[in-house]
Amino acid sequence: MQKNTDYDLETKLIHQGHSPDPATGALASPIYQTATFAAHSVEHFEELCRTWGYVYSRECNPNLTELESKLAMLEGADSAIVSASGMGAIASTLLSLVKTGDHIVSADGIFSHTRLLMTELLAKFGVEITFVDATVSDNIRAAMKPATKLVYVESPLNPSLELVDIRAVADIAHQNKSLLIVDSTFCTPILQRPLELGADLVVHSLTKFMNGHGDTLGGAVIGSRELIELIKWPGLCCFTGAALAPNNAWMIMRGMKTLDMRMKKHCENGLALAEFLTSQSEIEEVRYPALKSHPHYELCQSQMNGLGGGIVSFRLKEDIHGLTRDQVSRKFVNSLKLTTIATSLGEEHTLVQMNGENLIRIAVGLESAKDIIADFRQALDAVHG
Ligand code: PLP
């Protein structure tokens, strides 16, 4: 099936890049669990190498090709490359695009490991990084320099759930002849398509909502053929070697067939939980982009299809029954029964994580909203016990 047909997204999620196995007719794609591929002559081998044929699975594999085609279609792009994890994609991208003397403007509050990659690795090689509050686009404009090679943002930010105006930031980056890279892991293309808003590259941790079942790692970078080629060789295929395993690509593709319906359910549950929390006397603030009280509610309407996503963050009040906020938060989180204390997000289980500033981050799962809310209600009751 070619992309840009009139099929709806739900249909494309199932059919894009897929056809029954020509050898056997198997409708589910076979898993090409092989490291290497046989050529029938030296000339054939040379041709495969020249044309990105199937030679070696660190560089190319049919399961990866199918997944890459789906991802490019979803983001409205020419090209995509998948990787062993989200960090594999981000590291391969940044290491391929910047060199000593370049400057990066990055949103403050990005995923902590991406920040570490910039401050501990890129800085060591003479790349300068300026972190700014990217929720105010003018802060990015003020930080731009002639040497600024790229602007790097996430939206929503994690765990503050503030939004960055991708269209405005893309304009600023391009006026400076810089690239804009957006990590859109929290949204998936069901909610937000950064390339259509002007970004040059979008990165994803496929480990999260895209796979959706918390059972494998994966990552991707998506954009123009020219930029993806730059990241692919020698970056991802040789320098980082962060290739996705064929079996993991197959699992992610299976998860992605239901991405549309899962994302809508995550959003439905997220909104229901956020509204419940807003009405509770023990809670000081709730952050969820689709709540009218969120400072970027209007941007959520235009940039995220009006859907808030599957993550809710909130802070309990200080001094409940003489306890500090930290003590109350620990008591609350330890009282949750259905909800699991674990890192990560975007899977069927509801997960909770507490960060250093007592902001409690909920990765809302696919259970019934009634049961999730009942769990939070009993944990709030337990705070008084
Ligand atoms: N980007 C965001 C926004 C994330 O939350 C994460 C992981 O939590 C990553 C990237 C890294 O992805 P992975 O864990 O697949 O390497």
How would you characterize the overall build of this protein?
The strands form two sheets. A seven-stranded mixed sheet has the order 1-7-6-5-4-2-3, sandwiched between helices. The chain contains 14 helices and twelve strands. The radius of gyration is 22 Å and the shape is globular. The protein is 40% helix and 15% strand. Bound molecules: pyridoxal-5'-phosphate.
Short description:
40% of the residues lie in helices and 15% in strands. With 385 residues, it is an alpha/beta fold. The radius of gyration is 22 Å and the shape is globular.
Task: Give the topology, please.
Layout: H1 9-15, H2 42-50, H3 62-75, E1 79-83, H4 86-97, E2 103-107, H5 112-122, E3 128-132, H6 137-143, E4 148-154, H7 166-175, E5 179-183, H8 188-191, E6 201-205, E7 219-223, H9 225-240, H10 246-256, H11 259-278, E8 283-287, H12 297-303, E9 311-316, H13 325-335, E10 340-341, E11 351-354, E12 360-363, H14 369-383
Parallel strand pairs: 2-3, 2-4, 4-5, 5-6, 10-11
Antiparallel strand pairs: 1-7, 6-7, 8-9, 9-12, 11-12
Helix pairs in contact: 3-10, 4-5, 4-9, 11-14, 13-14
The protein binds pyridoxal-5'-phosphate.
Pyridoxal-5'-phosphate binds at residues 85-87, 111, 154, 158, 183, 185, 205, 207, 217, 219.
Low-pLDDT stretches are none
What is the first-to-last residue Cα distance?
59 Å
Annotation, overall tally of beta strands: 12
Number of helices: 14
Percentage of residues in DSSP E strands? 15-25%
- Ions and ligands: pyridoxal-5'-phosphate
Largest beta sheet: strand ordering: 1-7-6-5-4-2-3
Rounded mean pLDDT is 96
The level of helicity is 40-55%
Largest sheet: 7 strands, mixed
What is the gyration radius calculated from CA atoms? 22 Å
Structural class comes to alpha/beta
Based on Cα principal axes, name the global outline. Answer: globular
